[in-house]
Specification:
heterodimer, A: mainly beta, six-stranded antiparallel sheet, five-stranded antiparallel sheet, elongated, B: mainly beta, five-stranded mixed sheet, 12% helix
């Protein structure tokens, strides 16, 4: 904005200097162009509210949420469902809050994909992330979603992935982008999600993980 | 025991059976044994837009532009971060009591059209119990103007029915599932899906859950 004001002031001074005192007023189109450094900030907050955690899918009165040891406190750790049973479904409330800040005048797209399938560290088997981990729109507080609230699946990315071990957040290098999980014409936004897990009946016992990668791209 | 007393006893016995059979006591003996959900995702493409032939030129007001501000982003910037999702899976002896071969079914459809997916998924009951009942329905509507009843099913063991039946929506049906059938032992149902997408539905992904509940 300072640049804009400065530019306008400079133009006005030039006109004032060049114009004779008795000149007639001349009007015409003016185009002012300036360059802006792009700003794109993404903040992830897992377990973003008290009451976060996993609940078995049931209708009616909802059991109290629980979570695994890697989800130690509000705003920290992983989305850790804890112990789940093969063949059962769960919801994880208050899983992820994303805050996006850009200076894009035309908004942005938010992408969310699995870096890999849901991987069992104990026997190196895996289940398709698109059949196992889902996302559900939630709220900053007062979450009333259940394990039967309709969700949409995370897809396994088709783009090259770097890193992605249990302790190493991955990087996805996109050539083209998949369908966004959210899209807005605004420059900033807050997005709240619960996650759902459908554990396949044939899933082998063990400790599983997958990295969900979020990417913000201005439109 | 004289005949009159014998008749009275029979009447009493019959009345007792009727009362007990219709009572919550007996109903409570039938328990929900398992419940599963299959996610149904409908990827809707908007209906094609047709020109109506009217003049589409802009008004004079729209072209009376005498100045312009133009911001140019000097480079494409993105931001990327990741979160780890974890779980420890334990064996479940009842995991295959009631299960499906497809945890999720995705259907592409254009608004205003109807799509049929034969045998979109199977529902398997795997028990030695000789008399069980299964009920079904969808958990929610897809969205405003796109009700769950737009999804119909033809669920059968061997031979498809002549027509499909719209799913009942649990949330709109007083929290009651629709009976699907009674049977015994191991059975596999094939589920044909028919989705009718209203023409006014906007493009995007919509989902609901087809829920199956097993009782005996």
């Amino acid at each position: 904005m300072n640049r804009l004001v400065g530019g306008l002031t400079a133009i006005a001074m030039c006109i004032a200097t060049l114009a004779p005192a008795s000149a007639t007023v001349v009007s015409g189109p003016t185009t002012i162009t300036w360059l802006a450094t792009p700003i794109v900030k993404l903040t992830l907050t897992p377990n973003y509210n008290a009451g976060y955690g996993s609940i078995k899918a049931v209708f009616g009165t909802q059991p109290a949420p629980t979570h695994g040891a890697d989800a130690p406190s509000v705003g920290n750790g992983a989305v850790d469902f804890g112990t789940v049973l093969a063949g059962n479904s769960y919801i994880y409330r208050y899983a992820m809050h994303l805050n996006v800040f850009t200076n894009s005048a035309t908004g942005f797209n938010l992408y969310g994909e699995g870096a890999a399938d849901f991987f069992n560290q104990d026997d190196s088997s895996s289940t398709p992330v698109s059949q196992t981990v889902f996302y559900v729109h939630s709220t900053a507080s007062g979450d009333s979603n259940t394990g039967f609230t309709p969700g949409l699946p995370f897809q396994k990315t088709a783009a090259p992935v770097t890193g992605g071990g249990f302790a190493t957040p991955p990087t996805i290098t996109y050539g083209g982008y998949p369908a966004p999980v959210a899209s807005t014409s605004l420059a900033t936004g807050d997005f709240y999600y619960d996650y759902e897990m459908k554990v396949p009946p044939a899933a082998t016992a063990g400790s599983y993980f997958v990295w969900i990668v979020y990417t913000v791209v201005p439109q | 025991m004289n005949a009159r007393l014998r008749v009275a006893l029979w009447i009493f016995l019959a009345a007792s059976v009727v009362v007990v059979a219709s009572s919550p006591v007996l109903a409570s003996l039938v328990q929900q044994r398992d419940q599963i959900a299959i996610t149904i995702v409908i990827n809707v493409t908007p209906a094609p837009v047709v020109m109506n032939g009217r003049d589409a030129r802009g008004s004079a007001d729209e072209v009376a532009v005498t100045g312009r501000l133009r911001q140019t982003i000097v480079a494409q910037a993105t931001a990327q971060k990741a979160v780890r999702v974890e779980a420890h899976v334990s064996p479940n002896p009842n995991a295959t009591l009631l299960y499906s071969d497809q945890p999720i079914v995705s259907i592409d459809a254009t608004a205003g059209t109807t799509v049929v997916v034969p045998c979109a998924y199977h529902v398997n009951v795997h028990t030695t119990t000789n008399h069980w009942q299964i009920k079904h329905g969808v958990s929610n509507d897809f969205g405003a103007g796109f009700v769950g009843g737009n999804l119909a099913n033809d669920t059968y063991l061997l031979t498809p029915a002549p027509t499909s039946t719209p799913f009942i929506v649990y949330a709109d049906n007083g929290g009651v599932w629709a009976p699907l059938g009674t049977n015994s032992g191991i059975q596999t149902y094939c589920v044909d899906l028919t989705i009718k997408v209203p023409i006014a539905v906007a493009g995007g992904a919509y989902s609901t859950n087809a829920v199956y509940t097993l009782y005996w």
